[in-house]
Every structure is written in C-alpha cells, then in structure tokens.
Amino acid sequence: MIQAAALVEGLRPAAVLADKAYDADHFHDTLRQLGATAVIPPRPERAQPHPCDWRLYKERNGVERMFSRLKQFRRVATRYDKLLSHFRGFVLIASIVLWLR
C-alpha cells in the first residue's frame, strides 16, 4: 500500500478513484494531505467506513472498459514497442480507432 502513495506523489488530483483494495487509512491520509477526494468504496469489515461518492465512482467503469478495449490490440497488450514514444503513439492511434467505432 505504500507503493500506492508513491503513484500520486507530486500530483495535484481533485479526486482519486480506486477499488476496495486501496481502502487503507494511511492512503486516505495521503490523499487528504494532497487535497484530493478519496473515492474508494469501504471494505465490508471496516468498523467506521469512509464516505464514498458513488456517482463519481461510476466513472471508473468507463476507464476500466477503455483499458479492456485497448488490450484487444495485441501490440498494446504485449507491448511490442520498447520505446515509450512508439508505444504511446500506438495507444493514441488505437484510442482514436476505438473512439470512431
């Protein structure tokens, strides 16, 4: 979970959407220090659950679906391109193709 805090280090997000696996007090504290809203559903065993904006959490579904569609492109899923610029370019092209469908 400490690695999750490193992912948002140096960023200024308004909100962070994550699944139940990221429901830890220290991660919520890190997000609060950054001024971000934690949109993380509470784990069922939590005695005092943190609040969660369920309307905003539904946005996460669209992001997950987009990643799933991008992985249908074999070149993206297996990362044939070793250079970041080439990989990023193909992800952009694949995104455009998916958007136009």
Short descriptors:
mainly alpha, 53% helix, 101 residues, two-stranded parallel sheet
Can you give a write-up of this model?
- The protein folds into two domains: 2-54, no CATH class; 60-100, no CATH class.
- The protein has a two-stranded parallel sheet with strand order 1-2.
- The protein has six helices and two strands, in the order αβαβαααα.
- It has helices spanning 2-7, 25-34, 54-57, 59-70, 74-78, 84-100, and strands at residues 15-17, 37-39.
- Helix 2 links the parallel strand 1 (15-17) and strand 2 (37-39).
- It has 101 residues and is mainly α.
- It starts with a helix and ends with a helix.
Strand content: 5-15%
Helix percent band: 40-55%
Spatial strand order of the main sheet: 1-2
Low-confidence stretches: none
The helix-and-strand class reads: mainly alpha
Radius of gyration: 17 Å
How widely separated are the two ends?
Answer: 38 Å
How would you describe the shape? elongated
The tally of helices reads 6
Number of strands: 2
Give average pLDDT, whole number.
Answer: 87
Largest sheet: 2 strands, parallel
Summarize the structure.
This protein is mainly alpha-helical and about 100 residues long. The protein has six helices and two strands; from the N terminus they run αβαβαααα. It has two domains: about 1-55, no CATH class; about 60-100, no CATH class.
